[in-house]
Amino acid sequence: MSTDLPDPEADPEPDPDAPVEVGRVLGTDDATPMEFWVAVRPDQYLQLDDVVALERHPAGTDPVSIYGVVNQVRARSEGARFDSDVFLSADGLLPTQSSEAAQVHPTRFEPEVFVPPLPGQPVVRAVGHDRDMALFFDQFDTRLPAGLSRNDEPVYLDLDFLDGTRGAHVNISGVSGVATKTTYACFLLHALFTSGAVDNATNTKAIVFNVKGEDLLFLDHRNTRLPPEQAARYAAVGLPATAFASAGFFAPPRRTSASAAPDVTSRGHGVTSYFWTLQDFCELELLPFLFADAGDERQQYTMVVSQVTAQLRKTMQPLGDGAINLDGVTCRTFADLVDAITDRLESEAHQQLWAGRAIGIGTIHAFVRRLAGAARDVGHLVRGDLPEPERHRIRQDAQVTVVDIHNLNDRAKRFVVGVVLRRAFDMKERSGTSEPLTYVVLDELNKYAPREGTSPIKEILLDMAERGRSLGMILIGAQQTASEVERRIIANSAIRVVGRLDAAEAGRGEYGFLPQAQRRRSTIIKPGTMILSQPQIPVPLVIEFPFPAWATRASEAGESLAPRDEVDEHPDDPFADVASSDDGLPF
Which pLDDT score, from 0 to 100, does residue 455 have? Predict the structure, then answer.
């Protein structure tokens, strides 16, 4: 780079593309390779997150370009001694002068000669190639749009740290309802599918768990309330302001309905209900996911869970329609299955076989009570009393598969999340290749992978965090409090994003990657603003992302972008399936 400024006397019409001097390195504060201050020129300004550059010529070596990001800005009155002097100065009775200075955190030295800038050296605002150098964008093999700077300039992610090439996984933290965690996760998916950065974007898949409201049931509809200026911000990062072109939606059936009508209110068509048959429950060994609370693993009845799971797989006989026969007893509802299991556990003739050796009656009763409670919560999700159950499997026919769980209680949510993730992970393992990639968006991560205790779901998420990169399964996890999530999951997330944080949470060690000023700032940032940390850039960047181009509620929904064969052809048929081609992978 060059900070040579035009001479006004020699060139009365300066080059408009020449770098603009915004200030000079301050001499009254120490300048180090880790931090320095810039006195801002009276006719210029610097704000938080601005990118600056300067050049130093050390003796005996090549010129060193120093780049940095503004981390703090201050203003003071020079010549004043007391707080009340400001009034005298304002009245013209005391000669003072206002000055501004900006604290800069260096991001890059090129070449890597770590010397401090010298007082008085000119500092320019970094634009174009200099800005790319400062933020290492020139080092990214593939750029993925991540948002916009405060000056509406594009900010990028290094795709190598999101697709498993050099790293994987994203973790997003922030206060519920304010931090827009899920919205930003959807923006990242939109960028992956539409930016052209991903070579095999057409076959790349995403599984999104909808945990709150019905906001994610309209991803395939354009947002009629997208302001024109927000549409222009999509163009600024090279993305189309469109909805998701390929999306499938799955919701649990209504509890009180004899049919399998999906339990949604805002969307009347294009949603498929899902459940697992009793045959699936036994063959796929799904019983442990009813005991997926981390507290369950500390109870002795988990030994009974393992024994009963094995016996169900061994002794059940499928009836061909999802129902099963268990030692001569026909089970068509989950309540029937619970009764059959209870009879065998309480029978002296079967007790040792079904409960295991040296298991006390108290432990058996604790298991039975827990299982009976589960029947109330998941009875509509595990059944064998409806025709054509194959039409109600969660499938990945579409690019984005939304699994709605917001109407379920915690036990049922854990069951659905655990089963879907286990099946998806198993299929990726069996495929033997990481392509095509599968992204999993899961909010409330602290509920499924808490810091303390163990559970089947937590083990799956840990396995995904540690081995998912090689299998092509990438986790985009979100939570209000990263301090309550298993440390290894956070540690394996190459990209970390922070929205609005609670002040107490912001002070915890999990946010040590944020400078102190940004920790304080995270408690006041507005929705749509995030702090992004990625391995290539040594300081976190504050970014903004555009308003969703897809509808987030029924009142915003315009036309759907889904092709005709992905839309329910029979909206009045409770068994109609929006995505039931044989090419999909059933869960």
Answer: 86
